[in-house]
Amino acid sequence: MTALLAQTIETTVLESELEAARTYQPAPHLTLIEGGPAAKLNTSLHPGVFKAFAAINASILGVFWWTFRGDGEALFMVAISAVYLAAYLGTPYVMTRIGNADAPQTTPFLKFLNEPFETWTGVITGREALTQVLLIPTAILVATIGMGSIIALAG
Fold first, then answer.
1. What is the pLDDT, as a whole number, of residue 45?
2. If you placed Cys at 117, which of 84, 86, 103, 129 could pair as Cys (CB 3.0 to 4.6 Å)?
3. Domains identified in the chain, total number
């Protein structure tokens, strides 16, 4: 009797999922920023965003250096990480200089922050694009500062 009841519940769940999938209506596409057909949308980030990204990552390495400044082996690992960071940031820079990349933006940074910026999921402002790019590295920097402070001041 219990097995029969389990089959009935399982079938009911399956049928309700199928019914929900059959009646699913996708939400209409919402445009976050009005930009008429004549408005030109940015599709590449301002160089200031990349500079801020590099500065945040260099700051993380600086916190590691400050945290482990008395240990030679740990500083050697920080130096290796600095080489990896240079490769991580330098490779795209060199590739854009060699290849046929888009011309770099010449608009002022503050103007970029307020202009529409096109992403795969829709149109946002440059300020929101900056936030999306820098949010995780900034959170990692804050966490690194906190943990580094605890380690350095405890020892």
1. 86
2. 129
3. 1
Mean pLDDT of 62-86: 94
Average pLDDT (111-132) is 91
Q: Tell me, yes or no, whether 49 lies in a domain.
A: yes
- State in Å, rounded, how far the first CA of the chain is from the last one: 66
Residue 103: pLDDT band with limits 50, 70, 90:
low
For 111, the domain range is 43-154
pLDDT of residue 94: 87
Taking the C-alpha atoms of residue 15 and residue 137, their distance in angstroms, rounded to an integer, is 45
Let me know if 23 is exposed, middle or buried by CB neighbors in 10 A (0-12, 13-18, 19+): exposed
Cα(155)–Cα(78) distance, integer angstroms: 19
Torsion, Cα 138 141 145 147, to 10 degrees, reads 120
Q: Establish if 75 belongs to a structural domain.
A: yes
**What is the H or E stretch that residue 119 is in?**
strand 116-119
pLDDT at 31 over 60: no
Question: Is residue 15 a part of any domain in this protein?
Answer: no
Q: How many CB atoms lie within 10 A of CB 58?
A: 14
Residue 74 has pLDDT above 80, yes or no: yes
